Amino acid sequence: MEPSTVLSSLMMTAVCIYAFFHLNKLGRAHRMYKQIQYFFLFMAIATAIGGILGHGFLYMTGKVGKIPGWFASMIAVALFERAAIWHIKPLLHQRNGLILGWLNYVELTVFFVLTFITLDFRIVEVHAFYGLFLMLFMIELYVYKKKKDPGSKNIFLATLMGAIAAGFHALKFSFGDWFNYNDIAHIPMSLSIWFYYQGARHMIYYGEEKIVPEEVIESESGS
């Protein structure tokens, strides 16, 4: 039904799969890194399902075909948000870290229920805005102010690319039916995913056993 949108969605899937497997090769066991890694897995599922069922075969599945992709994307956002909570936890009072953790569970549950009841994609968009533009960005801004974390800088770039994608989508800027606002938005979204991957590679965990990724050590020794 929308072949160009299927292809641009699968472009995002390819970036997600690349990020997932390359992060897996690094073998980082801490939950912060694992949750970021599974963000890319669920986002790969979301973009693949969204592209194939939600755009390619929408005439067969109807709006119901979009739901698995919507739910997968919300799980992905919640996972990265939770990883960011792990990132900031060592810098906060223990009680504040626990509050953020529980808020993450409540948020995902509420948005799941609202999406299932309304079948409205705007709920998914609001969740993405809340999770990536508010929680993740603000957490990483705090971490960067405290620690100048190298991963946070990449997440800022990812947020910028996400904002550009959202702008194209909101304005419905298109070059025609075969390269519409969905396809155009998927280009900065792919770049956003790439910068999230770079952020995941370079984020430092500041707990009692501080974890500094090899990529950060190599870049510091090189400079």
Based on DSSP secondary structure assignment, what is the total number of beta strands? 0
Judged by helices, strands and strand pairing, the structural class is: mainly alpha
Which series of helices and strands comes N to C?
HHHHHHHHH
Taken as a percent bin, the fraction of beta residues is: under 5%
Largest sheet: none
Shape: globular
The radius of gyration computed from the alpha-carbon positions, rounded to a whole number of angstroms, is 18 Å
| Stretches with pLDDT under 50, minimum 5 residues | none
Number of helices: 9
Helix-residue proportion: over 70%
- How far apart, in Å, are the first and last alpha carbons? 51 Å
Overall pLDDT: 89
Outline the secondary-structure elements.
Layout: H1 3-26, H2 31-56, H3 58-61, H4 67-88, H5 94-118, H6 121-147, H7 150-171, H8 181-202, H9 214-222
